[in-house]
């Protein structure tokens, strides 16, 4: 199955149980809007943790109905992340969502050794884009969690992403490992990692996907561009997942797609005990709603 639009993820949730989502630091206009919409659409049943007065103020300004929404009053923002994470580790929630709190603040709480959401896997971020000029959804990783992944980390990031894409109906994802060039250059670590990942995939050390790299961005997404450069590749022009060299490149691509290309995006942290919706401050309410869809589709 090939999905072209993020809204199609909703179909994957038909006949599946409604997921319990906990939103920490819930006094956040856009997150609250997305959560209420997803609740009204029967995708999630939400629990909001935060300053109840603030939450109700936003809701009344926006005319949100909080009648069927559980609110846990906690005015100290720092405590809300801990409470939300503990709800997930106690199996009282299926999805964690970041509200009005910094990304690294929440991630540090998630990684707490005693009661955090570690599973022994590397946690990684995936962003799934709907770009008008591309023929299917395309995912990008890691643009928000792992700062400078090494080869071992990249293998884990690939495995996390493959499981996520499988749940979106992509059985054998095509993965382009990006570099600045498509030739191996011993001075560019990204090209060395890409070549190793491709060979490991050929030898079945990394399974259930087709990996090619190094590929430059243009050959990864355009067959014409690959042919023009004489590159023979099963992945070129039909990529499902772009594996980024590091967080800087990934984050710039993410923002370029959203702001220049007006792409829609859904994103989630994978590899933890439950999916984590971790949108950034500049993400729209729609992006937050689509991220909830993605998290619900990938939750156990
Ligand atoms: N998966 C599993 N465990 C991890 C991961 C991971 N991805 N990252 C760190 N850990 C574990 C380590 O094994 C260690 O036990 C502990 O957590 C601390 O590790 P450090 O010291 O390397 O990590 P921290 O605490 O300094 O930072 C972890 C963050 C995730 C907070 C850090 O990597 C970070 O700030 N990432 C970028 C977040 C960000 O600013 N994104 C914004 C983009 S919008």
Structure overview:
The protein folds into two domains: 6-119 and 272-298, Rossmann fold (3-Layer(aba) Sandwich), CATH 3.40.50; 124-259, Isopropylmalate Dehydrogenase (3-Layer(aba) Sandwich). 38% of the residues lie in helices and 18% in strands. It contains ten helices and eleven strands. It has helices at residues 29-40, 52-62, 77-89, 103-110, 151-167, 189-202, 217-221, 223-228, 247-259, 285-298, and strands spanning 19-23, 44-50, 70-73, 95-97, 124-130, 138-141, 174-178, 210-215, 241-243, 264-270, 276-277. The chain is elongated, with a radius of gyration of 19 Å. It starts with 18 loop residues before the first strand and ends with a helix. The structure holds dephospho coenzyme A.
Helix and strand arrangement:
Elements: E1 19-23, H1 29-40, E2 44-50, H2 52-62, E3 70-73, H3 77-89, E4 95-97, H4 103-110, E5 124-130, E6 138-141, H5 151-167, E7 174-178, H6 189-202, E8 210-215, H7 217-221, H8 223-228, E9 241-243, H9 247-259, E10 264-270, E11 276-277, H10 285-298
Parallel strand pairs: 1-2, 1-4, 2-3, 4-11, 6-9, 7-8, 7-9
Antiparallel strand pairs: 5-6, 5-10
Helix pairs in contact: 1-10, 3-4
What binds here, in terms of ligands, is: dephospho coenzyme A
What is the element string, with H for helices and E for strands?
Answer: EHEHEHEHEEHEHEHHEHEEH
Please compute the radius of gyration using only Cα atoms.
Answer: 19 Å
Helix content: 25-40%
pLDDT < 50 stretches: none
What number of domains?
2
What would CATH call the class of the largest domain?
A: Alpha Beta
Terminal CA distance reads: 20 Å
Estimate what percentage of residues fall within beta strands: 15-25%
CATH architecture of the largest domain: 3-Layer(aba) Sandwich
**Arrangement of strands in the largest sheet:** 8-7-9-6-5-10
Task: Report the mean per-residue pLDDT as an integer.
Answer: 96
